[in-house]
Structure formats: structure tokens, C-alpha cells
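#struct-help
A.M.: can someone run this one for me? Single chain, 127 residues.
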Amino acid sequence: MTVGSYAGGLWKIRVELPDDYPYSSPSVIFVNKIYHPNVDQVSGIICVDVLNRTWSPMFDLVNVFETFLPRLLLYPNAADDPLNTEAAALILNDKETYEKKVKGTYSKYCIYCYQNISIKVVIIYTT
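D.P.: on it. C-alpha cells below:
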């Protein structure tokens, strides 16, 4: 991403497909830490409701990587059932401190920090 709080970061993502995929949405998990109201700080799991609300069997994993994840990072949803309540409170009440925490976690845990690039997707298949 070239804009927003998470601009220039590269995170490792794990995607788990349910047995009834594509009728149910995949689980998307950040492997390395990210400070975000819709991501659990310990497990890295993205709030299921955030993905399920918009999921359709017509979507595929390309939609997850090209649309859903960039939108999640650009427009965090702090108001509806956040998994990281501290991040949600900060984004709503103290944006400056939120940005500092994002950048602190970002610089410590993102795989690599790029400058002036669009979002990069690295897909690693495991069996």
C-alpha cells in the first residue's frame, strides 16, 4: 500500500479454507503481529464478521488479497465488535497515539518495510 497507516509494510498471511469453501469465507490470519482493531493481537485472526458480512461464493482468493485486505487496512472498523479493543478505542479517541502504535508494531514485526510501492502479495502454498 502506498497510503494509510500501513503503507509500505509486508505481512505474512495464512489463509485457511473451510470444507464448504467458496460458500463460506476463508479464515485470514496475520502470521506476524499487526496493530489493528479488527485483528486479534495474540492469534492474528481477522474478525470473522468483517469478512463474512461481505462474502459471496462468487468471490475468490484474488478478491481477498486485492480488495478485502487493502480495504481492511485502509478503513479499520473500530466501532463494530473489534478484536483489539485498545486499538479501537485509540483510533476513535486518540488517532495520533494509534498511528504511533501502528508504526511501532509495523517497524518491529512487518516482514519488510517498502517505500513507495503498491501492496505486494506473496502467496505460499503448503500442504
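A.M.: thanks! The chain has one domain: 9-113.
D.P.: also worth noting: The first strand starts at residue 9 and ends at 10.
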